[in-house]
Amino acid sequence: MSIKIFTYYYTNNYGAQLQSLCLKGFLEENLKLKVDYAKYLPKKLLFKEIYSPMITKNLFKSYQFMKNRILC
Fold first, then answer.
1. Is residue 30 packed enough to be buried (19+ CB in 10 Å), middle (13-18) or exposed (0-12)?
2. Do 16 and 45 touch, CB atoms closer than 8 A?
3. Mean pLDDT over residues 34-38, rounded?
4. pLDDT, tens digit, for every residue of 8-26?
5. CA-to-CA distance for 3 and 1, rounded, in angstroms?
6. C-alpha dihedral (30, 32, 38, 39), degrees to nearest 10
7. How far apart are CA 20 and CA 64, in angstroms?
8. Which of 11, 29, 48, 61 is the most exposed place for a label (fewest CB within 10 A)?
9. Which residues does residue 3 pair with via DSSP β-bridges, in sequence order?
10. Which domain holds residue 25?
11. Is 32 left (phi over 0), alpha (psi -120 to 50) or beta?
């Protein structure tokens, strides 16, 4: 039997990635299942992760953010 784990992969939350890896390992070891990942990318969360930090009143902070995240 094969199952899929839906996980939000584009984030700075490494705990969520670790939790999904542990769940995969547990299911494969104990229940003998084939486990795959299904990429889950909701548009609202993507906006919050990428574009929300850029929206600020201070132009210098906006430039620094774009320089560090986008241009490199």
1. exposed
2. no
3. 92
4. 766 777 888 889 899 999 9
5. 7
6. 40
7. 33
8. 29
9. 35
10. 2-70
11. left
Q: How many domains does the chain have?
A: 1
Measure the CA angle with vertex 58, ends 56 and 60; round to 5°.
115
Backbone angles phi, psi at 34, to 5 degrees: -90, 120
Which one-letter DSSP state was computed for residue 11?
S
- CA dist 12 → 15, 17, 20, 35, 48 (Å): 9, 9, 14, 23, 12
Both structure tokens of 68: 């560090």
* Verdict on whether the full-model pTM lies above 0.90: no
Provide the sign of the torsion angle of the four alpha carbons 13, 19, 22, 24, taken in this order. Answer: negative
Whose tokens are 């930090």? That residue is 53
Average pLDDT over residues 29-47: 86
